[in-house]
Amino acid sequence: MGDRLDGKVAVITGASSGIGEGTARRFVAEGARCVLVDLRDVAGERLAAELGDAATYVHADVAREADVAAAIDVAVERFGRVDCVFNNAGILGAVGPIAQTDEGAWRRSLDVLLTSVFFGIKHAARVMIPQGSGVILNTTSTAGLRAGLGPHVYTAAKHGVVGLTQSVATELGPHGIRVNAIAPGGTVTGLTAHLSTGDPDALELARERMGRGNPMRRPGHAGDIASAALFLASDDASWVNGAVLVVDGAGEVVGDRNFRFFEMGADIVQEAGRSGL
């Protein structure tokens, strides 16, 4: 497709599906070599095989620091460097009324949604500071900019991702490292399919339902977010640091859409729409 990332090495978490998969495909098409990090081994290994020598799959739970550190080490060992770390893995997390939210579900949600981003930034910096260059991207959400667009813990965590992104950008900028966040709006993935249809695999039905009433007459797609990630990872964004790029054709940040997650039954929704701890 192009060469905007020619010779670059990227580590992408949550890479086996949705936004992570779309970004991995786009990065490889633009010349990058990618380490695909996920828990879903079959899907991750299948994608790596499809992308060929430009990609390798690493099993990791991003809520475990040792797993995140090991994934970044794989990039250095196999490809010699790390130019971009995309902290993208996430879950919907604990849903339901605040008075009924389980402590374990709350903590697991924060671990996956926020602490994992800290781990990714920490170990990216470990490699990138000696290089004197690098790009760190973090997936937040429109729910990280406005209340009412996600469950309580998801909203809190995604606000935390914004704050962490901007705080670390000021530290790492002098080392030639840019740190930015992407805030997707309603994007068709297994998670949003679960919310709109009850079935995380019903992507086509989710596209139809999520497109109804949308100002752009369609929902967001993984490719829309991948394009934003490509821009921020490329030299085209060499003067962009500490930014939060909203990719939200639905106008959720400025509109009046409000999904009432606190009216759902108390539960935790994890990767690809899977429920329960």
Q: How widely separated are the two ends?
A: 40 Å
Per DSSP, the total helix count is: 8
Low-confidence stretches: none
Strand content: 15-25%
CATH architecture descriptor text:
3-Layer(aba) Sandwich
Report on this model:
The chain has 277 residues and is α/β, with parallel strands linked by helices. It has one domain (9-273): 3-Layer(aba) Sandwich (Rossmann fold). The chain has eight helices and nine strands. Strands 3-2-1-4-6-7-8 form a seven-stranded parallel beta sheet, with helices on both faces. The chain has a two-stranded antiparallel ribbon with strand order 5-9. α1 (18-29) links the parallel β1 and β2. α1 (18-29) packs across α8 (222-233), α4 (103-131) runs parallel beside α5 and α6 (190-197) packs across α7 (203-211).
Helix and strand arrangement:
Blueprint: E1 9-13, H1 18-29, E2 33-38, H2 41-51, E3 55-59, H3 65-79, E4 84-87, E5 93-95, H4 103-131, E6 134-139, H5 152-172, E7 177-184, H6 190-197, H7 203-211, H8 222-233, E8 244-247, E9 267-269
List descriptors.
Rossmann fold, two-stranded antiparallel sheet, alpha/beta, seven-stranded parallel β-sheet, 277 residues
How is this structure best summarized?
This protein has helices spanning about 20-30, 40-50, 65-80, 105-130, 150-170, 190-195, 205-210, 220-235; strands at about 10-15, 35-40, 55-60, 85, 95, 135-140, 175-185, 245, 265-270. The chain is of the alpha/beta class. It has one domain: Rossmann fold, CATH 3.40.50.
